[in-house]
Design brief:
Helices cover 30% and strands 15% of the residues. The chain has 281 residues and is α/β, with parallel strands linked by helices. The relative contact order is 0.18.
Length: 281
């Protein structure tokens, strides 16, 4: 493993001041040219999506960011497939003089990143998928996003069906289920059927009442013994650190904290985000 520190960072969602505070933390600045993995949702709902995006882009090859559902929502709006919602904070990006270049940068972000035994995605991984499967399926969607006709290819991105993986899915259904799993998944049933309404932290009652459990506890999950899965997306779950999974979303945009975890030793750095929460968040 490289001697350069790698810091895995939770959802930013346009909270640039918190990112700047995190980057000045002595545990982070003490490292020799550290690298950063961002768990997606760089933008939206927070007060400064444009500056946050520019800050991450400025890190160059020191940063990798996987795509989150809010990042894809921005692309969907830019493609004319979605309308700007009342809580969206995309205007500065869409109206920037270099908007097309910013969108191109987002389009070229991966949906999954694997390195040093850790697989980062924004939301989750279906139990039927191995690490190799996940990377292969992510690459299929990445190819669509990076194509010249990406706007047309995204037209079938939206929808909750199919909710369960099958090897014989057609191309459009395959694209949709991969995007949903990697950027929206929280809960599923024992067969890996996804459920998208549940946003609270999981409880035993969820299983008793509806047969739902967090995706990472699905029986027979193939990635369990292959890699540590690093994800964000689930602010009500908060910081979770187990041998097999790390959740990094600690609700910065909701006025809680922004979290970074150092890959080598799981050192945790958190900064307070109280001043980032606002009416638009």
């Amino acid at each position: 493993m490289s001697h350069r520190d790698i810091w895995m960072v939770g959802d930013l969602q346009g909270c640039c001041r918190s990112l700047e505070t995190l980057m000045r933390h002595p545990d982070i600045t003490a490292g020799d040219d550290p690298r950063f993995w961002f768990a997606g949702d760089l933008v939206n709902r927070g007060p400064d999506s444009l500056r946050t995006l520019r800050s991450v882009i400025a890190l160059g090859d020191r940063a990798v960011s996987v795509l989150g559902n809010h990042d894809l929502h921005l692309l969907g709006i830019a493609a004319g497939l979605r309308k700007v919602g009342k809580s969206d904070t995309f205007d500065e990006i869409l109206n920037a003089p270099d908007a097309e270049a910013l969108l191109d940068w987002i389009r070229h972000c991966p949906l999954a990143h694997y390195e040093h035994g850790h697989l980062m995605v924004h939301a989750g991984v279906l139990p039927q998928w191995s690490v190799a499967d996940t990377l292969e399926l992510a690459a299929e969607v990445q190819k669509d996003l990076r194509a010249p006709d990406w706007r047309q290819r995204l037209q079938t991105m939206y929808g909750n069906e199919p909710s369960q993986w099958r090897d014989d899915l057609d191309q459009e259904d395959r694209r949709r289920i991969v995007i949903n799993a990697l950027t929206r998944l929280r809960m599923c049933d024992a067969q890996g059927r996804m459920e998208f309404r549940h946003k609270l932290a999981p409880t035993e009652q969820d299983w008793n009442d509806s047969g739902l459990l967090p995706w990472y506890d699905a029986p027979g999950r193939r990635t369990r013994d292959e890699a540590t899965i690093v994800f964000g997306h689930w602010s009500t779950l908060g910081l979770l650190m187990r041998p097999d999974v790390i959740c990094l979303d600690t609700g910065c945009v909701w006025g809680r904290s922004l979290t970074a975890v150092r890959l080598g030793d799981r050192k945790v750095v958190q900064v307070d985000c109280t001043d980032q929460a606002g009416a638009d968040c």
